[in-house]
Design goal:
The complex is a heterodimer of chains A (392) and B (242). Chain A is mainly alpha-helical and 392 residues long. Chain A folds into two domains: 250 residues, no CATH class; 111 residues, D-Maltodextrin-Binding Protein, domain 2, CATH 3.40.190. Chain A contains 15 helices and four strands. In chain A, helix 3 links the parallel strand 1 and strand 2. The mean pLDDT of chain A is 86. By secondary structure, chain B is an alpha/beta fold. Chain B has a domain of 70 residues. Chain B has nine helices and ten strands. In chain B, helix 3 crosses helix 4, helix 3 packs parallel to helix 5 and helix 8 packs across helix 9. Chain B is globular. The mean pLDDT of chain B is 92. Classes of the chains: A mainly alpha (392), B alpha/beta (242). Chains A and B meet through helix 1 and helix 9 of A and helix 2, strand 6, helix 3 and helix 5 of B.
């Protein structure tokens, strides 16, 4: 049996017996993603549902000055509760976050309304607080609606149609499809796959380099009549197998997890059937070699197991950077991006989940460039394995 | 047969070897003796080719360790200092892995591994995972692993470190058996008594240089000390540090 295969077979057997490696390859990576994902989805569903349906409790100062406004608000599912003692107390309470919003109705509100002057209502909130901002918007909209109703009544009273105030009517047409909308949320899914993939091989990459040195098994291994290139390639190949296993498992676990998530309530139907699972595996597969090589490379520089763990957790996060930047800038797939590993896989995956036709050129560039970088890193690994300092 | 000819090696500013030469012939046991940090391990590492000498040369059965390191390693069974096993593999699997790496073909591998297990008398724990092995068991398995490809030259770096009396004794018997087979055995130690009891030739090194290279009696004579320990100390003092 050639050396490479012997090393490969030994590393696979050895690591299958190591609970930590197995747990990170078969449990951590594949399960962490879907679980976090389910949590986020459920949270956002709860939020979006609660906004419309729940009763907003609105502290009001001076409610007695505007009984009609209060009644109108109550008809819009807003419950009026007693606010702080006075204006200053209200500002202090909102500042400390004790209460989120306060509506202040001055004593002259009724008089101003009766005189036909703009009647003043004050809304105190902290706009840096997202939850308060949402509540404030709801209260503001309700007050505006009341304003429009009164204005319309005044116009009718003067024999003018309220439509004169509506010079332009904006009609929103949303062209996003249910699959398209899911891509926004499911965009982070691709990182979970890359994370699972890297997790799957992390302990193997450590064990075959820093671990082997720490255990004292590296030196006798290097004194055998085999070339170091073969040893290194066998180790990287074994790491690849664990990464592939972890990736495949995480794809399928997502597939099953999505079935149990009430995504339709958010208006999403992600295109993530068995065919996409398999296609996604092949799109991500080139990243396996790159991941295995870079983890082995980084781990082979470290002096101990612990040091390797520290550095490799940085490697785990590195692929998020391009994804994060592109998500923030909200850019679409472009040819230049296909040269960047992790980003290219992410963009192709997002397109697949959106159920958009695959751009074959994009896929080809992504596969070739990622494989090329992976092979270059593997070559560097093999070169570095020849140096004397390896023994530490 | 190992021939070492004037090897030098530095790590940064530290000169670990400053010209070490000696021969270790077949059918004899050669002891490399020296205090900690004298350069014993560095010398042996050059011989089993994980380090390259800055200057000088070394040959295993006439094969240069730098020019044809692969062929040189084929002729060596090395037991580095503190050699570790794979804890998730059994003793037998540890040995079989090395046998396969050394290119022993599938048909002969089981016989070969069984043979070496019998030779080292480790059958009792051969099929247990090596995780909980004692130091003595670990050393024996590591030695079995190093001998599995039937090398003519055997290099042992402080093999008796951490072994109890019984384990040391059985290791000593094994080394004698290897010598009787006509092999070349080279081992390092910092214990004079151990080397004297076992070795035909003793090479004392200190500060990266050879202080004396002779038999135990020859060393006693040349240092004019009857006591071995005194002879050892006297020999070390013959070498000037930098």
């Amino acid at each position: 049996m050639p050396t490479l295969l012997t090393v490969f077979a030994k590393e696979v057997v050895d690591n299958f017996r190591d609970r930590r490696t197995l747990a990170s390859a078969l449990l951590m990576g594949p399960l962490l993603g879907p679980m976090l994902f389910a949590f986020v989805i459920n949270l956002s569903i709860e939020r979006s549902l609660s906004d419309a349906d729940s009763t907003l409790q609105l502290p009001v100062i001076g409610a007695e000055h505007a009984p009609n406004l209060v009644r109108y608000l109550e008809s819009r599912n807003i419950e009026i509760i007693a606010g702080p003692a006075d204006h200053d107390a209200a500002i202090a309470a909102v500042k400390t976050g004790e209460i989120e919003i306060v509506v202040v109705i001055p004593a002259e509100f009724g008089q101003q309304l009766a005189d036909g002057e703009p009647a003043k209502v004050e809304l105190i909130s902290d706009q840096a607080n997202q939850q308060a901002d949402r509540d404030a918007r709801r209260a503001r909209n309700a007050v505006r609606a009341y304003n429009q109703e009164i204005a319309a009544l005044r116009l009718v009273g003067r024999g003018v149609s309220p439509l004169v105030l509506q010079a332009i009517n904006v009609d929103d047409v949303d062209v996003s499809t249910p699959s398209g909308r899911s891509a926004i949320l499911l965009g982070m899914m691709s990182y979970f796959f890359i994370f699972a993939l890297l997790m799957g091989g992390m302990y193997l990459a450590i064990d075959t380099t820093a671990g082997e040195r720490e255990r004292g098994s590296l030196e006798p291994l290097l004194s055998l009549p085999v070339t170091r290139d073969q040893l290194m390639l066998g180790k990287i190949a074994a790491t690849c197998v664990f990464m592939a296993m972890s990736l495949l498992l995480s794809l399928w676990s997502f597939f099953f997890a999505l079935k149990f998530m009430p995504l339709e309530q958010l208006g999403m139907t992600p295109n993530f059937g068995p065919a996409v699972v398999i296609a996604a595996f092949f799109v991500l597969a080139p990243f396996i070699l790159l991941g295995a090589a870079i983890m082995t490379l980084v781990a082979s520089f470290t002096k101990s197991y612990k040091e390797a763990q520290t550095w490799l957790s940085v490697v785990l996060l590195a692929p998020t950077m391009p994804i994060l930047i592109v998500s923030l800038l909200n850019v679409r797939a472009q040819i230049e991006f296909m040269f960047i590993p992790s980003l290219s896989q992410h963009l192709i995956l997002v397109d697949m989940v959106k159920n958009e036709p695959l751009n074959i050129l994009h896929v080809a560039i992504s596969v070739v460039s990622t494989l090329f970088i992976g092979m270059s890193l593997t070559w560097i690994c093999a070169r570095l394995y020849r140096r004397e300092g390896l023994l530490g | 047969m190992i021939v070492v000819n004037d090897i030098h090696k530095s790590f940064g500013k530290v000169q670990a070897l400053r010209g070490v030469s000696f021969d270790a012939p077949d059918g004899r046991i050669t002891g490399l003796l020296g205090p900690n940090g004298a350069g014993k391990s560095t010398t042996l590492r050059v011989l089993y080719t994980v380090l390259q000498p800055d200057q000088g040369s070394a040959a295993i059965d006439g094969v240069d360790v730098v020019e044809d390191s692969l062929a040189a390693r084929q002729r060596i069974g090395a037991l580095p200092h503190g050699a570790g096993l794979y804890p998730h593999l059994t003793a037998r699997e540890n040995i079989t892995y090395y046998a396969a790496l050394c290119g022993i073909d599938k048909a002969g591998i089981d016989d070969r591994v069984d043979g070496i297990i019998a030779l080292l008398e480790i059958g009792e724990f051969a099929d247990r995972r090596s995780k909980g092995f004692s130091q003595g068991q670990r050393t024996k398995v590591a030695l079995a692993r190093a001998l599995v490809h039937d090398p003519q030259n055997i290099i042992l770096d402080e093999p008796t470190n951490g072994l109890d009396v019984m384990a040391t004794r059985s290791l000593r018997d094994l080394i004698l058996k290897l010598k009787d087979d006509g092999r070349c055995v080279l081992f390092s130690s910092h214990v004079m008594q151990e080397v004297a009891a076992l070795c035909d030739d003793i090479c004392i090194i200190a500060h990266g240089k050879v202080a004396l290279d002779d038999s135990a009696d020859g060393i006693r004579e040349r240092t004019a000390c009857d006591d071995l320990e005194d002879a050892f100390v006297a020999a070390i003092q013959m070498v000037e540090p930098d």
